[in-house]
Design a protein that fits this description.
two-stranded antiparallel ribbon; single chain; 341 residues; 10% strand
Length: 341
Amino acid sequence: MVLSNLKKLALIVNTAILLMVFGLMAFFYVIKAIFLVYFSIPTALVYVIGYILISKNRLYGYVVMVYCWLTLYMGVTTVCLGYSYGFHLYCMSMIPIIFYSGYMGRGLNGRHINNALYVSLGIVAFYLVTTLIPVYRGPIYTSDTGADTLFWIVNSLIVFSFLIFYTNLMIKGIVYSEDRLKKIALEDNLTGLYNRHYMLTQLEAPSDKSSDFFVAMVDIDDFKKINDIYGHNAGDYILKSVAETMKSVCENSLVSRWGGEEFLVLGYDKAKAMSQMESVRRAINEADLSFESQKIKVSVTIGIAGREEAESIDKWIQIADDRLYDGKNSGKNKVVYNLEN
């Protein structure tokens, strides 16, 4: 979750809590809990200040302020009204939020609550104290309106809503992070192709049809000259352009960046290997590529090897690589393949 989305979430939560404060303030007035009416004034002020902190991207300060005041508010209302109103339940929603906020703070490389476990234990201790006080001494305010049951239900629903909401956010955040890590681990950052590690896992995967497979080693001709003449930014542009062309032409095959200016293609029908790789060579050679108004002519040389029974992965790739260099040494811009090895 990016900072802008986190700010929107904080604004929504802050507004919801502020509206709840005003609603509770009216209820406290009705049951003549005067101290709680006055206590609602600084409580509302806390969330007004919250808008200022959020607008200035001081989310860490906002979170700390809200946690401290919510804990105090939970304790004060429980001591004044007793636990039958359910205000003490809010500590249950605060604990997962603490861990979630710490997780998000780390994800955004910002300040975050350290030792969320100890903070949570402190909230639990405060919860036990504030709920035991009315048990032994009775609540300060009592009401015959029967509102305690209604409030217990409402507060329970609010707490469970927060728990569901933040648990869902946490799971989504974890899934998002795992997807990003998986993408980083399996894809080349520059070209968006699969990387060498992922390709090796696919080459090693068992298959009953592996005898129909082929690999093609693709190398950009004279790539060093492109970098020397046009610059490394132009070289990166060429790598990305070649990668896009290969993905488009080899849509039914697996394409990876093998290293530097080399690419490896895993195809699943070696009878079509020559025609497919010739299409790749032709498409790249005929592409109209230009970088910063400078036209750049690009060609590739390709070596192909069909899979033979009991042949190791290293040997298979080495054969394709040897044919690639045969093509390099015999004029470049060509495809070299021999089904008979």
